[in-house]
């Protein structure tokens, strides 16, 4: 019988040619790894799979020409994507770079070495022309870039744009009167004004006003409602109307998936029971019986508020009005966020968080009621008082 020390050092081991068990071979291999193991220790390969993508950090060894640590990685696109490498003096810098590359690829924010040399102006032009957007969204993005971003950063390359540049741009906007993207309930229309607008805009478009005001719908969503979408106190939103520019540059309305939703997905919104009265007045069509796109509603809205002589509201304020009414009356901000169709609860909190009811007094009441009768006498006296 051999002790573990004797077995691992070879003392008292079977003579050459004498059979040994598989267990003995495995243990001995772990104690005395082959030469290839030591080679890999000197040339470590650190692989971090991310789906089909990975990177490798190689150590060329001390004294080798050039920088010691080399990162080999692929650009986005799988096995057929271009392979690149970058060298570093320190292992930490190499690992940090490799990790950043994989994180950027995972989050679709990767910018290749050559892409970083492209100007921001050229990059934004390529992006706008390479994605499918509704006409209104495309025009909005183009206007913001042309008027507010590119005059200040357009000549810089992607690699040259820093966080400090963005902060400076924010500061410039704030100095020019831009305000945080929060909603001031004092700037929203009153209930009397909403009623007046709904009447002035005419019976054909009136349902859109109330769908936005009482359901928090976007303007395109209000135009995509059909009778079968009303279901037992819920409005099941399945589509929105968007405007596209056809090959001739003409505006064309079409149905599209909801914002932040894929084809076939929907969003349920609770609505009052009396909303079923609108079932025979949807979908909202134009005077020729065709689809109405948001721009036509905007035009009718603008004419209505001009005749009424009220502030220059936009139709989107009705969505803000719905959020304000629900939140100031105690509806959960998480539920409101879901019904609004926001991509993230952070968007809802940033815009409407200041409107939520203060829960501190409610918290004090709940804790006091729960522990009453179990507290020390001096605390119970204070509670009774």
TrEMBL record:
One of its GO terms (biological process) is DNA integration. Keywords: DNA integration, DNA recombination, DNA-binding. The keyword Cell inner membrane does not apply. Residues 184-368 form the Tyr recombinase domain. InterPro entries: DNA_brk_join_enz, Integrase-like_cat_sf, Integrase_catalytic, Integrase_recombinase_N, Integrase_SAM-like_N, Tyrosine_recombinase_XerCD. One of its GO terms (molecular function) is DNA binding. Belongs to the 'phage' integrase family. This is Site-specific integrase. It comes from Streptomyces inhibens.
